[in-house]
Amino acid sequence: MPEDLLQPPAEAAPTAEPPKPAARPPEVPEKFWDAAAGTLRTEALLKSYLELERRLSQRAARPGADAAPEELARFRQAMGIPESPEGYSITAPHALCCADAEVNGQLHAAHFSQDQAQLVYDLAAQKLLPLIAEAAAAYEADRQRAALVAHYGGEDAYRRIAGQLAAWGQAKLPPTVYAALASTAEGVMALEQMMRGQEPGLARESAPPGAESETELRALMRDPRYWRTRDPQFIQRVTEGFRRLVGSPG
To answer: Where is the sequence biased in composition, kind Pro residues (predicted)?
Structure first.
């Protein structure tokens, strides 16, 4: 469209001022902020992140067999591993699971931390001790049974007398006394003597003054002298104690 020369020229629009750069957010370090552009320096941030990732991976990686002592020391410090096996502080979860120097040495060589080493002992107490106790009880029962088989002249003879003793003992004796006698070879032999009339009739009253009670006799049977070393005098004491619980028939 042709310009109207009779009209005054239009005033030029004022020039807009350029926008000010954005301010740096407080959570962004200065080295990652371009103040002139008001933007994040992504290249510097990415480079710093990659370097941090590299250092962390090296720090967490398990040192090789040829690692320098300084590298091993840094790794152990970062992972909570003591400087030596003696540095483990093990709380024994059971009397049979106390700290063992040889075990601790192997744990330290495998780079176990303090918490991991403690867990090994805790799991041993929780899982292995019950299995060991069961195996020991089964072994002792087999040993006691073998002694009875030999005493009675063979498996068949023992089975015959065992059935008779079980029937008589369960009918004549209190359950706790029968269970105590039937749990050992010596107890079974004492039970046979009672059945054959050498020690008739179990007294239901209390034991005579000075004699061990049934509870005390059961405690004596748990003594290692009774079940481990098989002390003849100690075994005789227990056997006689049960015999003293036997009275004359009414």
So the answer is: 16-26
* Cα–Cα distance, 12 to 42 (Å, whole number): 41
Q: What is the pLDDT of residues 77-131, one digit of tens each?
A: 777 889 899 999 999 998 888 899 999 999 998 889 999 999 999 999 999 988 8
In the predicted model, is pLDDT for residue 222 greater than 60?
A: yes
Give the residue carrying structure tokens 């040495």.
105
Tallying the residues shown for the chain, one arrives at: 250
Question: Of the candidates 54, 226, 25, 232, which has an alpha carbon nearest to the alpha carbon of residue 144?
Answer: 226
Query: Which of the 8 DSSP states describes residue 14?
Result: P
146: how many CB neighbours lie within 10 A of its CB? 13
- Nearest in space to 238 (alpha carbons), one of 189, 194, 168, 186: 186
Per-domain boundaries in the chain? 69-151, 154-244
Please tell me the pTM assigned to this model.
Answer: 0.44
Distance CA 48, CA 56 (A): 12
Residue 237 · residue 150 · CB < 8 Å: no
Q: Is-contact 212 241, C-beta < 8 A?
A: yes
Task: Name the 3-class secondary structure at 202.
Answer: strand
Nearest to 194 by CA among 138, 246, 229, 249: 246
